[in-house]
Write a structure and sequence with these properties.
This protein is of the alpha/beta class. The protein has a single domain, classed as Roll (2,3-Dihydroxybiphenyl 1,2-Dioxygenase, domain 1), CATH 3.10.180. The chain is built from 3 helices and 8 strands; from the N terminus they run βαβαβββαβββ. Strands 1-4-3-2 form a 4-stranded mixed β-sheet, covered by helices on one side. Strands 5-8-7-6 form a 4-stranded mixed β-sheet, with no helix packed on it. The radius of gyration is 16 Å and the shape is globular.
């Protein structure tokens, strides 16, 4: 049997109990992800789900909570400079990184300390 992995269905990041509103403020209001409804059976676990295009991002509640400081999702964006300016205007701290040839990128952390990478390819890979 031959198989291949097609794409990523979703990314899940952990957050502490009771952090759904803070997740909404960051992912929905600042990053402009659209909130999507969780299946009824999963709502009782807490957390909140978002999507942007074909990307789904699930914020799951984890107790005890420990943020992912090294492991991270990387989001490819268009107009990365505009995104950087927007985040800075929202008081989100970013760290630019020039170590990936052909890409402009930066890192930030969500409100719970999970690392996030944003990049734009400026040269073809």
């Amino acid at each position: 049997m031959t198989f291949h992995i097609e794409t990523i269905d979703h990314i899940q990041l952990a957050a502490p109990k009771g952090s759904e509103e803070e997740a909404r403020k960051f992912f929905r209001d600042i990053l402009r992800f659209k909130e999507i409804e969780k299946p009824a059976e999963l709502r009782k676990r807490g957390g909140v789900w978002f999507e942007c295009g074909k990307i789904q991002l699930h914020i799951g509640i984890e107790e005890p909570f420990s943020p992912a400081k090294k492991a991270h999702p990387a989001f490819e964006v268009k107009n990365i400079t505009e995104l950087m300016e927007h985040l800075v205007s929202c008081q989100v701290v970013i760290t630019e990184d020039d170590k990936l040839p052909g890409a402009k990128r930066f890192y930030t952390f969500d409100p719970f300390g999970n690392r996030l990478e944003f990049l734009e390819w400026i040269e073809s890979r």
